[in-house]
């Protein structure tokens, strides 16, 4: 089996997929698409991913995009360790937790949204920064309320890390980039510590990727 991942060090969605691949111990080659320089719009990559975003996973020549779909695909082709529970209610809860970041919090702060705020609405750099901090904080607050209702034991769905933990860890990475103090979100912070103590999470962190810069 050969796996390639079109990603980028700064991409939160690519981070999710890197963790999933690492938890499943699946080797892969990462191909960098610099989304901060606009290379997602290059003709060659636009052909790979019609949405013009990263990540895209290529498995034996078959392309899959959208990080949640990719993680579920990996669970289907390589079931152990499972990232998604089998039980219907647990699976729905895991997917719900994942979607708080994937569908609700993260899409509001991606490069194309930040760019549009500046170009269409005249927002300056500090207004865009405040926007990103606001929506990232909202995501963290939602996760905190959810984890208070059902405390991790020790991970969000139980004994082993899965898609929910991956997405919550990604939200913590966004908090770091947006300089948000996690002390107001102790349950999220504790789960994050548990995740990033694992090499699979730690090595997928943007700071461990080629090209990392803390200037962004
Ligand atoms: N919901 C998608 C998010 C895809 C996405 O927006 N990726 C960002 C990087 S994390 C991107 O490529 N942005 C390019 C842009 O906004 O122009 C997923 O989870 O895969």
From TrEMBL:
Coiled coil: none annotated. The keyword RNA-binding does not apply. Residues 87-213 form the GST C-terminal domain. It comes from the Bacteria. Residues 1-82 form the GST N-terminal domain. Its EC number is 5.2.1.4. Pfam families: GST_N. Belongs to the GST superfamily. Zeta family. This is Maleylpyruvate isomerase. The lineage of its organism: Bacteria, Pseudomonadati, Pseudomonadota, Alphaproteobacteria, Hyphomicrobiales.
């Amino acid at each position: 089996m050969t796996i390639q991942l079109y990603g980028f060090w700064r991409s939160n969605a690519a981070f999710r997929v890197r963790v999933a691949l690492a938890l499943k111990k699946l080797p892969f080659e990462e191909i960098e698409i610099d989304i901060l320089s606009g290379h997602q719009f290059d003709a060659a990559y636009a052909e790979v991913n019609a949405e013009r975003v990263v990540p895209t996973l290529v498995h034996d020549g078959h392309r899959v995009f959208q990080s949640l779909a990719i993680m579920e695909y990996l669970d289907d082709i390589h079931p152990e360790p499972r990232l998604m529970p089998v039980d219907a209610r647990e699976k729905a809860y895991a997917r719900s937790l994942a979607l708080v970041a994937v569908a609700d919090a993260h899409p509001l702060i991606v490069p194309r949204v930040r760019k549009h705020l500046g170009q269409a609405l005249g927002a300056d750099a500090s207004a865009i920064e405040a926007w990103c901090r606001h929506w990232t904080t909202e995501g963290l607050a939602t996760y905190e309320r959810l984890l208070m209702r059902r405390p991790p034991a020790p991970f969000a769905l139980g004994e082993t890390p899965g898609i929910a933990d991956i997405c919550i860890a990604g939200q913590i990475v966004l908090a770091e980039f947006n300089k948000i103090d996690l002390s107001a979100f102790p349950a999220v912070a504790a789960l994050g510590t548990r995740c990033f103590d694992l090499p699979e999470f730690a090595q997928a962190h943007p700071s461990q990727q080629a090209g990392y810069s803390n200037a962004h």
